[in-house]
Amino acid sequence: MVGITVRDLEISFPLYHGNARSLKKTLRDSLSGRFTQDERERVVVQALRDVTFTLNPGDRLGLVGGNGAGKTTLLRALAGIYEPVGGSVTVTGHIGTLLDPSLGMNMELTGRENIRLRGMFAGLSATQISAVEQDVEAFAGLGSFLDLPVQTYSSGMTVRLSFGLATAIKPDILLMDEWFMAGDASFRNRARARLETLVSQADILVLSSHMADVMVDWCNRLIWLEDGRIRMDGSPREVLEAYLGHPLEELDNKDTAPDPVLPEPDPAEPHPLP
Ligand SMILES: Nc1ncnc2c1ncn2[C@@H]1O[C@H](COP(=O)(O)OP(=O)(O)OP(=O)(O)O)[C@@H](O)[C@H]1O
């Protein structure tokens, strides 16, 4: 059965190898208790720690939290891109990711070849692959670029191809970072309509977003991450109200209101370091 089990997950990144005390002190002060040193004296930031939860079919989990809270790291750990330093991540089911546009894309192959390759990896028949190819071609609107290597695409074109492809083959579990909804307004509208169909079909969704209305509309559970730990786990309204520190009544009139965006978090919290 499709599912995700995360137990005592810890993900850490070594940041710096050396002995410059002033740099270590700066990192220690700015990383609010997430700084440690490993046995090789490297500065290590704990991106996630003590993270435990289970997801079953029907769960649509939203991740909220300030910059550097650990949302992207958690999505990447669920996708198997990051190996846990401690604890475990167990995923059953076919995963579809909308995390990084070039993820799973062979830049030397053409867009069309990438589509066919992805279809073959997904075990689709020749007829199904041809249907996916037509669908992605129509959605991405790349014209003759579809037959050129992906490395010749602009970043916007890569996003369109990657988004079209990831949403053409229905996954059991969809992992999504909100920036896939960025881009120009016409792309955003088309992308949103396409995503809504996919989200309604995927068994499990895990989505990171700063858009409160997306969280309330699409998710039935939210986890608030703070400093790499779960601060709160509950219903979207309950968690958002605690996170924002006020009731969500403005969303009740969202047909007339613009998309509310969650506040930008504490600027003292560093943006992901290179
Ligand atoms: N590749 C990396 N190397 C070193 N540190 C990293 C790396 N990726 C993330 N981190 C650190 O791990 C912590 C969590 O980062 P993460 O990107 O998961 O946060 P986030 O909640 O997605 O933030 P944002 O909302 O800004 O995207 C941060 O302190 C960040 O600096």
Automatic annotation (TrEMBL):
GO terms for molecular function: ATP binding. Residues 249-274 are annotated as: Disordered. Residues 260-274 have a biased composition (Pro residues). InterPro entries: AAA+_ATPase, ABC_transporter-like_ATP-bd, ABC_transpr_TagH-like, Bact_Polysacc_Export_ATP-bd, P-loop_NTPase. Keywords: ATP-binding, Nucleotide-binding, Transport. Residues 27-252 form the ABC transporter domain. Belongs to the ABC transporter superfamily. It comes from Acetobacter farinalis. This is ABC transporter ATP-binding protein. Pfam families: ABC_tran. The keyword Secreted does not apply.
